[in-house]
Amino acid sequence: MDSAMAFISNLLVLHILCLSTSYPFSSSMPDTLGEGLSLSIDKPSDVLTSREGVFTAGFFPVGDNAYCFAIWFSEPSYYNDDNRAVVWMANRDSPVNGRRSKLTLLKTDTLLTEQPLTRSVELVSSRSPTNLSSGFYKLFFDNNNVLTLLYDGIEISSVYWPYPWLISTDAGRSTYNNSRIAILDSFGNFTSSDDFTFVSADYGVRMQRRLKIEYDGNLRLYSRKNAGERWVFSWEAYPRTCNIHGICGANSICNYVPGGRECSCIPGYKLRNQTDWSYGCEPQFKLSCNKNESKFLPLDSVEYYGYDYGFFPNYTISECEDLCLQLCNCMGFQFTFYEDNGYSNCYPKTMLLNGYRAASFPGTLYLRLPKTFLLSDSNISSLNCLGQGIKQLDRMYTKGHTNEFVQFMLWFACGLGGFEVLCFLLVWYLLLTSHQNSDADVGRYFLAATGFRRYSFAELHKATKGFSEEIGKGAGGIVYRGVLPDARVAAIKRLNEANPVEAEFLAEVNTIGRLNHMHLIEMWGYCAEGKQRLLVYEYLENGSLKQNLDSNTVGWDKRIEIAVGTAKGLAYLHEECLEWILHCDVKPQNILLDSNYQPKIADFGMSKLLKRGELNNSSLSRIRGTRGYMAPEWISNLPITSKVDVYSYGLVVLEMLTGKSPTCYAFDVNGLGGTILSWVRHKVNGTSEVAPLLQEIMDPSMKGEFDMKKMKILLEVALKCVEEDKDKRPTMSHVLETLLHHDKQ
Fold first, then answer.
1. At what angle do helices 708-721 and 676-684 cross, to 10 degrees?
2. What sign for the dihedral angle of Cα 286, 289, 291, 296?
3. Looking at 219-370, which runs of residues are DSSP E strands?
4. Which of 251, 255, 245 is nearest to 331 (CA)?
5. 194, 202, 216, 585: which one is catalytic?
6. Which helix (DSSP H) or strand (DSSP E) does residue 264 occupy?
7. Is there a catalytic annotation at residue 202?
8. Whose CA, among 334, 439, 558, 622, lies 20 to 30 Å from 314?
């Protein structure tokens, strides 16, 4: 390399030294490059290593004989030797292949601890996991001094974080600053001058950390305690990844599927580029301005954010449809009707961007199509976004002649180095074993370190008046009513002191801390003091669904709302979280009702959080629900999936319909005693029309006063959910779609 290359290398080394942290590591590699010296692509050992050994700088391979000058963590994960975490790359858009190649200093996608993010710095994502050139997503301070995530696509750009429908103050951001600086410390605390802060799930422990804007537009924090360990995901900005702008391109829908996301073209559209979903989909037809030549296709639970012709409140579907037909550039309209207050919203769409499907979204997208256009399966395209959606950067150069003596010396050095590494690993293993107990203690408690108020035992003892007002009891502990120091009424769950319940405590705190949904219980804090383990929840004055069923205080209309709300909460847990969450103990006692009798799912003590696609998990075999509500898979030792919650939900709905508990064996089935499930199946079996049986099946406390059609739908849904074969049971999103569809009719 020429002297200019050497000069740039010296500047980079100074940057490396500034970013180094105090993790001991011995290295014989130099950390500076003297004047007149150079680094060669032909010599893989030509690298610079920081004094503490944490970072390495050199030419990093990004293709076949294609290299970029980069900085990376010296120690890869022992779980994947090829997984070296690159934190900076110079010529990411123009790799080099040898001498006299030009380097250009470009933006990176990673922020390290104690490295300031300022007004002149922005992070830019890569194009894909294999294509490290500049992508479409950026993190930077905007002109209002707010830390912002921007989608800067091929044709369109838009801000998607903070949420664009919120003004800065509502998003918790301040524009009244001029410093524009953000910094991440090694303990996991991120602080920005616009008042945005977060702490990692493992906050409080000094670790190696890196904040990265991913190719999918999400901002994620990764941590590891020691060099060589696996990088662990410990925070992210956007849990609902389908809501990230541009993720599937124009005229497409982002769907949550087992394993992650899937992009699909809307009916009548096809992929523009089979290898790159960022180009979106294009129409297979041409719309006419003649209003008599168009029709509309409803797509339930689909939303497209932005690019509205306008907002038209309290329009009927017919009025909204007529408005769209009058506009030549209207591609469809978003329509939402709110049954609780009778209001409706109409949004004619001039472009179909940022589309996603979520079972919890109550609206419908009415897609405009020519009347002459016939839909078929061939008109619908889909593309899984988890694979290599973008081809690897096409870079190939011809390698020069390799010196055989140099190659021999290189192999000899590698062999000697490998022996040294084995010795190092042996010493490391012995040290790790000796500190295993202390590390386990640290890991046991950091899950509950952030996001909630930590109460002392004395505070909660006073709040509950010495734990005197018991409002509930379960296998894991007793729930008391209490008044917190800020005058809020709370439900305080005091867990038993046995060791298994300590694990239950950590599971519940960690799980609920990841959730945010109107039909899930909200947790305000916790206590971990000595052997005392307590959880502090919002207090719901109407108690549990079980209590209300026993006291006959909920009519048929409320029971339908409770069934729909519970389905929304479970659909969110199963399909809309970053990771799957199985509740594993769905029952009326764990469905609480607020002042408006809206349901909230509670008690996540037996819940299990899975990575998407992880269906077989040995730890699930140790989880058990409540007798009478457990799916057959628990008994048969079959793989446990979200269908166990579907089964339990079906039994809860049957209990709401009949008023009888599934644990009761007092029903006549062919002259023998049976459960409520076997009794209902016996009544319905062989009957083509269920409606006449409803009077006999329904809860006697209703005295025959109920909507026959809606109760029939509930019964049919419940019986599908309790199929013995889990593959015949619907998903919770399908259950919700069925209930909402019939609720609109």
1. 110
2. positive
3. 219-224, 232-236, 252-257, 260-265, 269-271, 281-283, 294-300, 302-304, 312-313, 332-338, 343-349, 355-357, 364-370
4. 251
5. 585
6. strand 260-265
7. no
8. 558
Give bridge partners of residue 395 from the DSSP assignment.
Answer: none
Find all residues with CB under 8 Å of 628, minimum gap 6, and list them: 651, 661, 662, 663, 675
pTM of this structure: 0.53
What six digits make up the tokens of 356? Answer: 């996603």
Signed CA dihedral, 57, 62, 65, 67: sign only: negative
Coil, helix or strand for 253? strand
Q: Please tell me the distance from the alpha carbon of residue 348 to that of residue 743, in angstroms, as a whole number.
A: 24
CA distance 107 to 138: 10
Mean pLDDT by 10 residues, the chain (745 residues): 37 37 41 60 75 80 78 67 71 66 62 90 88 89 93 90 87 86 92 92 86 93 85 86 91 85 92 87 91 93 93 93 94 91 92 91 93 64 43 45 68 79 78 50 41 83 93 82 92 73 60 76 84 88 91 90 94 76 88 93 68 49 72 82 93 92 67 73 73 79 81 91 93 91 67
- C-alpha to C-alpha distance for 258 and 226, rounded to whole angstroms: 32
The number of residues making up the chain comes to: 745
Q: How far apart are CA 234 and CA 230, in angstroms?
A: 12
Q: Which residues lie closer than 8 Å to 672 by C-beta, 6 or more apart?
A: none
Angle, in degrees to the nearest 10, between helices 676-684 and 643-658: 80
631, two tokens: 């799916």
Q: What is the C-alpha radius of gyration for the chain, rounded to an integer number of angstroms?
A: 30
**Cα–Cα distance list, 321 to 291, 318, 329, 343 (Å):** 10, 5, 13, 17
Do 39 and 48 contact (CB within 8 A), yes or no?
A: yes
30's tokens = 């130099």
CA distance 483 to 218: 39
